[in-house]
Amino acid sequence: MTSDIQQEISEQIESFYQAVKENWPGFKTRVGQEQMFAQIGQTLSHAKSPKDSRDGDHILVIEGKTGVGKTLGYLIPAIVFSKRMNKRVIISTGTVALQEQLIQKDLPALAELSPFPFEYALAKGRGRYVCNIRLEQVSGKTKQSALFEDANWDGPPKEKDIDHFANALNSLNQGQWNGEKDTAPPEISDSMWPRIAAERSSCLGRHCQRFNVCPYFNARRELVKADVIVANHDLVISTIASGSKILPDPSETLYVFDEAHHLPQVGIAHFASSVGLIASTRWLEKIMTAVLRADALLPESSGKIAEEIHDLVTDLIQHTKQLINSLRLSNFVTHDQAIHRFKHGELSEEFANEAQTMGPLAIALNNRVSKILQQLNDQRNNSIDKDSYSPAILEMGSYQAKTENLSNTWHLMQADANPPIAKWLEWQDLGSTFDFKLHASPISAAQNLAQSLWSTSSAAILTSATLRTLGDFKYFLNQVGLNWFPKTNTFEAESPFDYENQGTFVVPDMLACPSANSEGHTQELSTEIPNQLSDLRHGALVLFTSKKQMKQVYEDLPEEFLQDVLMQGDMPRSQLILQHETRVKQGHRSILFGMQSFGEGLDLPGKLCEVVVITKLPFAPPDSPIEEAKAEWLEKNQGNPFYEISVPAAALKLQQWVGRGIRTETDHATIVVLDQRLKTKPYGKKLMAGLPPFKRVM
Ligand code: SF4
Predict the structure, then answer these.
(1) How far apart are CA 46 and CA 458, in angstroms?
(2) Which of 264, 357, 437, 466 sits CB 3.0–4.6 Å from 426 for a disulfide?
(3) DSSP 3-state assignment of 501?
(4) Of ligand 1's atoms, which has the minimum distance to the CA of residue 205?
(5) Phi, psi for residue 256 in degrees, rounded to 5
(6) How many A from CA of 205 to the centre of ligand 1?
(7) Ligand 1 pocket mutation pick from 126, 129, 193, 217 by most atoms within 8 angstroms of CB
(8) Strand 273-276 and strand 433-442: pairing?
């Protein structure tokens, strides 16, 4: 980028910023926000074109604590750069709350103040929109309904469900419902939704009779016009990995990942795969009827693919049933021992043999089913009577989604990767019945994110209030694969808070250590919490690492103290917070008891939270199969899972929990940690090094 263009962009950012300064209600100049403009501008000036190599100078990881004004800090430079460079901006969030804030508040306000016009829109995955055709079919309103039922219903649909679908169709046609899941009629439950969602494999696209009124394609048409697209991490990753066209090409996109600390988990979940063995035999038993119906519509077909599918399906059903029978007899997993993880990603002999047989069968089946689907589409495109192919395409499309999932899962079960794939079998309780569910998941998203995102994107900004752990960005960079991009920029924006004068950090002496004497610690909490809150006049937040301990402490607390306590789970979260706010506003004490979700996402400024009590350091035991597999892999490679996984993860959570105390420049709060290990264990110092510089009382 030439210095003239850079100068022009700097001037545009300055004039946009000036307009915001003068007109944004209650706007305050913040050093951290201005640092963000400069850092983001610097990184975006290194945005890449498709052929450029990428060593990381197009990426910035920037931590901005609460109060920095992060959203304006990235929106203003990103919008200016996108306009000047003719690229699109995708703002990806980890939560719906932030998406709503961007779409309903920040972007409309900025569009009013911007020196040049820009368009913005919200992108949702196609599964969040209804498919008109599928809805018509499950409503029983078309002659093809009977055909479609096979692929999507385990048994005949209930009368009541059909009525609900028919009412929803009516609302859609009358324009009373926009076709989005979030605004769907309440009778359409989460379990009913997949039957009418706009899935990729069964979509007829431009050839669909409802194409012009299709909610999903209408939303896509809006996105094409938008300069700024608000999306979520899951949609961004899945769009790139699947090659879907819903979002612009990465090489033409400037990404901003806000709440970027969610990226590692979202990345892992996206590349994982699972399949229910019993459920798969059910649809495998029905697929041939659909295949024969499709084959009959292909005049040039010799019937060879249908025959091959028949043989593959027969073998798959036989092997799956054998495996199910053997699992029933062996008690490998049971209702009480629901998970069996294959250590080091190595399957037992029986599973290894099955995987060796089932993997190629499932892959071959998916190839053949995809081929028939392709032939149907080609036939339809060359035909005058295009509509006559639609039911078969929809039906085969639904089965193709299932064969693809089966093939992916068995492929991953067979995979021998480094780091290893976490593989486990689960007894899945389905109420009156059960299934054996096979799972396979990468233990880190690093490789996949590096390949699919950082190596292809034009530029990317990753930001959040907590990205550093133990004082640096190393843990986060490793988790998302940015350690392989040596020129990745990192920066910590200056906080507007005067932590030393606004906050006090207290670690009182206690008798019981939570790890050595968990019961004693729980008992001590019931006296120490009231002690620490004896001078409290308004609101406080008490955070627990487990529901069991929270309930136990609650039961042991004195009656007069309990009058002021509101506990998570006793009523819906929004109601609980409202009661807390009302009590504080009326001049009463109010003490919220909560767990992890209260530690991360709760905003309680001013009097609403004058004291935060952290009852125990937030160490998460590596109890998920993915975490266990990761710890095992580190150990095998002479790593120390405790120091390399548990301590950084606890440090990240502790920062988030501590962050509940000071939310504005006028807040004052005391943070109390009732866990001696901060003072007695070697890692205690490391954990404290990552915290804001509060006045300390140890
Ligand atoms: S275009 Fe695709 S998603 Fe939309 S109604 Fe038609 S088949 Fe359904």
Answers:
(1) 9
(2) 437
(3) helix
(4) 1
(5) -125, 115
(6) 6
(7) 217
(8) antiparallel
- 386 — pLDDT class (breaks 50, 70, 90): confident
**Residue with structure tokens 């590349």?**
271
Phi then psi dihedrals of residue 278, to 5 deg: -65, -45
SS3 199: coil
By the 8 A CB rule, do 515 and 678 touch?
Answer: no
More confident residue, 348 or 18: 18
639 three-state secondary structure: coil
Angle value at C-alpha 280, between 277 and 284, nearest 5 degrees: 140
Which pLDDT value is given to residue 146? Answer: 44
C-beta of 211 in contact with ligand 1 (< 6 A)? yes
H or E element: which one contains 222?
Answer: helix 215-225
Ligand 1 close to Cβ of residue 177 (< 6 A) = no
Question: For residue 16, how many other CB atoms are within 10 A of its CB?
Answer: 22
Percentage of the chain modeled with pLDDT above 70: 97
State how far the Cα of 60 lies from the Cα of 459, in Å rounded to an integer.
8
- The answer to whether 302 and 414 have CB atoms below 8 angstroms apart is no
Shortest CA distance to 44 belongs to which of 32, 60, 64? Answer: 60
631 lines ligand 1 (CB under 6 A): no
CA of residue 203 to ligand 1 center, whole Å: 5
Asked, as a colleague might, if the bond just before 419 is cis with ω within 30 of 0, I would say: yes
Average pLDDT of 516-539?
95
219 lines ligand 1 (CB under 6 A): no
- Pick the most confident of 57-61, 132-136, 139-143, 244-248: 57-61
